[in-house]
Structures are given as C-alpha cells and as structure tokens.
Structure prediction request, 330 residues.
Amino acid sequence: MLEHGGRLQRAVEQYGIAREDWLDLSSGIAPWPFPLAQIPQRAWARLPETEDGLEQAARLYYGVAQLLPVAGSQAAIQALPRLRPRGQVGVLSPCYAEHAEAWQRAGHQVRELSEAEVDGQLDDLDVLVLVNPNNPTARVLSRQTLLAWHQRLSQRGGWLLVDEAFMDNTPAASIAADSHREGLIVLRSFGKFFGLAGVRLGFVLAEPLLLRALAEEIGPWSISGPTRILGEACLRDTAEQQAQAERCARASAHLAALLGDAGLAPAAGCDLFQYLPHADAAWIHAFMARRGILLRLFERPAGLRFGLPASEADWLKLAAALDDYRKERA
Prediction:
C-alpha cells in the first residue's frame, strides 16, 4: 500500500501518544464536517437505486449534464486504467501517488513528467493524468492549457484525466463544464471539502459512453443508500457550502502566516492545505510528531503538507510546537 495522510493509528503506536491527544493535519480534508442528514430506515433496508436525487444534486453542483457517482474518486482512479488498451501514460508529478500506481498495475507504461516536459512528450502519450489544484504543490493549471493538451490528445483518441479533488474552494478554475468533450475526464472528491471523507463518495464527469463503460466496470450498488442521502443533502446545502469556503480560506491564510512566523514559510497552498518543500522535512515531521502533531511527509521531493486546524485549541497546540521549533533552530 502507498503512503497516505490520515494514518493516525500508526502514529499512536509509533510515538506512544494517546489518540485523543493528537492534532492530525496530515490529510488535507476540511476539519469541519457538514451537518449529517437524517437517514431514514429504508436507506438501510433496501438496495440503493440510482437517480434518487443524488445524481440530480451533483449535476447541479458541478454544472454538468452527465456524471457517475463512485465510492470515492479512488474507485475511479483504479478502474479507469482497465478501460483502455495498454499504452503510454504521462503523469504530471509530483502528485497523488495512486494515479501512477493504478496505471502501472494495469500494465501501462508510465512516465512521470514535469510541467515543462509535457508539450515535448504529449504527442507520444495515450493518456495524460494530472491533479488540479495539484496535491501536494497546490499548483493550478489554466483552463486554456488543459484544453490545449486535451485537443492534442483527443485527436488521436487519447484521454486527459484531471483530478480536481481540491477544486471545490476555487470552482472558477474547474474544467467540469468541458467534461462532455470526448476524451476529457474530470474526477471530483466529495469528502475533502464537505469534511466527510468516511462517507466514501466521489464523482466522475465525462461523456456518456465512457461513463457507461465505467459503470459496468465498477458494477451495481457501489454507493450505499445512506451515503446517497448524505451526499444529496450536502450538495444542496448552498448556505453551508458558502460558510465552509469562507472558513477554509480564513484558516489557510492564517496557517500560512503562522508557518511563516516560525521560519517555515510555505511555497504554495490552497484553501485546504499549505505545502512546504524542505530539505529537513523528515526531521521536522518527527519533531512535530513527538509533540502530538501529525503532518503529511513527502520524500520525493522532500516536503511537508499542513492541513487546517479546526479549533482554537488546535491552533494553540500548533503555535506552541512551532515556537519550540523556532527555539530549537535559533
């Protein structure tokens, strides 16, 4: 299994700190879960049905005419490589490591590319995969750039796969509205912005033929009845969505300032996390973990991702640890 954030139980065992004493900033998930809708008994008792309200709410939220709910965007990441003959796949790196892993596992030849390398190699690729905003670097590619890449790929029957897991806070940068184009696939995550990662819900935005093929590959009843009800309620709650966006923006800006004051100014960030490339990332990760703060460590390139604290107590805990760091490095 690849390394991911959110593995708090492992940190509990490694550092001997009780679970309730940890501040987990490792996952990049909004730390304020949306209110939970009332789940009627029928949702538990019956097999789930499609077009029960979830798809309609999601189409309205994402501004598209067609989409497919999946059990977290991870389900689509693993299934999509099985829908193409083995070929040449470029992955814009660094990014969420499951993308390259899934295409390699399905027998494709994978090239990890920098942004500067894409134009020179695009005509040799069958698929280009990228995350926008990128995880962990928070880099946002323009719609014009993405559609130009898509045009070159689609002329040869290729795909552009864009993972927009962190896009909810900045919807103007999304290319969801273009996902009806043949060969353009957009993945959206539900759990991150809505703070409900345990629900395991995501959406694939693409043209109908591809969505039908993906639905057949994944199989029936992939989204539970309770998840469908929760998802629809959150997607229709525009007031809470606005409040969440504002909370995230304020917290991310405050986090960037706090890190900068400690001599750890982030190189980039989005409204759900801040990213710090640092040669001593592993040392800083361990330093914070010994104080009950879990960060996401990246090894290639060396760096750290800081998620958002949820409460005043969380901010104070982080500030105290950063003050210890400042004194240690003085």
Summary: The chain is about 40% helix and 15% strand. The chain has a mean pLDDT of 96. The domain at 8-33+239-329 is CATH 3.90.1150.10 (Aspartate Aminotransferase, domain 1).
